[in-house]
Task: structure prediction
Amino acid sequence: RRLLNIIISLFLLVGTIGLSIWYGHNHMYLAQTVTAIVLSSATVYALAGHKSASGTIMFMSVFNIVNFGMGLLDVNHEVNPANFSVAAGCGSLCVITSVLAVPVLKFHWCLLINHCFYHDLKLYARMMCRSSYYDSFSDISEKSKNRLLMLQSSLYNITKHVDDPERRERYVKILNGVVLITYWPTTDTDSVHVAHINSLRNSIFKLMYGLLSAGSDADVKTAVDELNFFRLNLAMVPDDPFCNGEMKRHAGEVIEAITELKMREIKNASSE
Result:
């Protein structure tokens, strides 16, 4: 599969080079501008939902602009300052137009950051709520462990780019709680404690996944109510003697942070 992906990427990149040179050779400025806008917008889409393809599409955008200029300066035209100016001006126009296309399509950097955070957190929650019973994190398969570690790293990196201090604080609180719940050890404890921790871990990640998968505002509110109900019930459960209620406290903080974020987003959207 990886080899097939490489072959497809090479075909796309070579095809982009050929098409761009042909555009330049025939001085097809309008077609080049449209192609540059489409490729740049596709890069934004890929970063939002298909990160594995974003690298190829981004290079296609770059090759499209560079090789269009090379096509303009072909052997049938004298290489002089005038031709260079036309090539550079057209390339700059394509870049500027492509950048301006992003706000036209209503893509905002802050929205993209939030989307990426929720996307990766949803993948993380899905993996954790489907993980089998385990005594410690080392019991998880190597493939799943690497995937979880990669998502943790991605989530922390995303959090660094959040400008809103209040939102960033909630993101950090969610991540710290999620990581603690993931790694919470149960080795050398009794079976009751192990069952309690695994049940708590599975329940919170399952409810989080339900919230992050919700589409409509009504579904989000329902998922928020379920999480808050779970938090209230959790507070009434006696503290586990092995962790003295610390696991419950962190779980409650995660639920509080993510539900507040989601409800605030619904409120802000309705007021616009």
Remarks:
- Residues 104-108 have pLDDT under 50 and may be disordered.
